Amino acid sequence: MESELINFSMGSGPLIATAIHDGHLVRKELKNIMVLKEEDQLREEDPFTGDLTEVAKTRLIGLRSRFEVDLNRPRDKAIFINPDDAWGLNIYETRPSQEMIDRSLEEYDIFYKKINQILSDMKKRFGRFVVYDIHSYCYRRNGPDGSEADPLSNPEVNIGTGTMNRELWAPIIDRFISDMRSSNYLDSKLDVRENIKFKGGYFPKYIHEKFPESACVISIEFKKVFMDEWTGKLFEEKFNLLKYSLKQTVPGVLQELEKLNSE
User: Fold this and answer.
1) Residues 261 and 127 sit within 8 Å (Cβ to Cβ)
2) Helical H segments across the chain, by residue range
3) Cα–Cα distance between 201 and 39 in angstroms, integer?
4) Residues near 86 by beta carbon (within 8 Å), at least 6 away in sequence
5) Which residue in 34, 41, 75, 221 has its CB near the most CB atoms, within 10 A?
6) End-to-end CA gap in the chain
């Protein structure tokens, strides 16, 4: 079942990039009772974030939709049932059976067992390591022709550090933000701010609790300026520039990690 949940490739170096909300697949038994429109499902997922994991040599991409199981929420809230669970969206014609829910929770447990194995191995190999926890978020919830969300509270890149020991990992976080801001993006500088829109979900919280002295998880939320969130169309130039900006942070982050390891 593991191969149906994630696409994982192990590479060299103490950096892993993840995109756990990239997936769009839903099991047939759930799809058969869904009334959620395809475009609404896609809008609340994080399409194209899997491609952003290419900045790291070790990569993990979620294959299942968050509407099947949300890996960034606590286990007791990982299954969307009611509109209150999912941005007011009506998901099912009839409530999933307990057996269906249990199968989704089994996927959740398999995923976190695998994460624990992967990161335990990285700890053994490198001591300390960095996780790029890559996501994207909507900013045009007023409709395709509606007003955009206020830029003051919706940065182009939100860095979530609310689940970590910020003091311990400060050199890495500060370097990441500085390098991301300095990158040229459409003849301007990216608006990169910390803990404005999101502070990080359950995924980084779990990792920081399991590996408090070893793991630095940087939750990176890209505002969906790189796509039309209502049609799913990718704006390739913007996307490639964001990807390049993210890639440019890697040398500095690894340099700061090496300094921490030498102390």
Assistant:
1) yes
2) 2-5, 28-31, 38-44, 49-52, 98-126, 170-182, 202-210, 236-247, 250-262
3) 24
4) 44, 67, 80
5) 221
6) 42
CA gyration radius, the chain: 18
91 with 67: CB under 8 angstroms? yes
Q: Quick check: pTM over 0.85?
A: yes
In the structure encoding, which two tokens stand for residue 170, read together?
């400060």
Cβ atoms 173, 159 nearer than 8 A: yes
What are the residues whose beta carbons fall under 8 Å from the beta carbon of 119, sequence distance 6 or more? Answer: 16, 129, 131, 207, 210, 211, 214, 215
Query: Cα separation of 244 and 231, whole Å?
Result: 24
Six-digit token string for 241: 């520039």
Half-sphere exposure of 70 (CA within 13 A, CB side): 19
The tens digit of pLDDT for each residue in 7-45 reads 999 999 999 999 999 999 999 999 999 999 999 999 999
